[in-house]
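Issue 218. Parser rejects a valid record. Input:
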Amino acid sequence: MTFRIAVVQPISHAPEDAQANVADALRFIERAADEGADFVCFPETYPGPWRMPASFDPTPALAEAAVKHGVHAVFGTIEPLDPTAATAHNLIVMAYPDGRAPARYRRTHPNGPWIYTGGPTWEFQYVAADEFPVFDTRHGKVGLAMCSEVYMPEVSRALALRGAELIFMPAGTDKRRLWATWRNLIWARAIENLAIVVTTQNLLSHAERGLAMVAAPEEILFESTVAGLTIVDVSLERARAMRAGRDGVGASSEFGAKQGVLGPQWQRPELYDTFYPRPLREAAE
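Output the parser choked on:
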């Protein structure tokens, strides 16, 4: 069964004016729904806020819009923990069309503290979480992650092993010299997990280069470097067939990625402690 994902790569308001992004996000949701979208994907920390103390919470407005327009809305915000210490989780949220409590993923990688303090955009003391929830929808099981967690294959693999077929991995801002490797890794996460992986980012001006993509295991279904909203038709049937299949002689004549890589033909969990010696915890710079 085919469904539609609206990938939104917005021109975002500056962090100090982030609350203005909420009205823009609501207009994007309405437009996406008018074009038949089932999911709307926004970037990391969009519509905001970017900084502590958090001056607004976009969740009620976007959750209400998801119900009103009958879509799943995937968006970014922060979850304040201690206003005095300026600590917060970084969140990717998915609001449902049926009004149930929104799904939440709290960023897990890397260790904190990290880059969300001291720069021109984010300003909060990041606290890493430790859970990898997945969420049922009528279109398939959804996993949420974010941004440079694409460089940690364990994050997407944890979601896929829990059944996620559609992984939203929204990102923050212009990737600069990381752009090429970042693009490749989005597709790699789709290939190795036999999943559909979706990303997009904030543009703070039209001069910046975006990275919006929808990647399937065998092909990139959509990509764009410019601002806008794009509707992408997606089906999970091929990925599901490849998950259920087995690699064999001649399979490369029919399949553009290896089948069954989440199953017992490929997985050897009894070896994990052998090849991963569990290094000491260190904070990222």
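Fixed in the parser; the record now loads. The radius of gyration is 19 Å.
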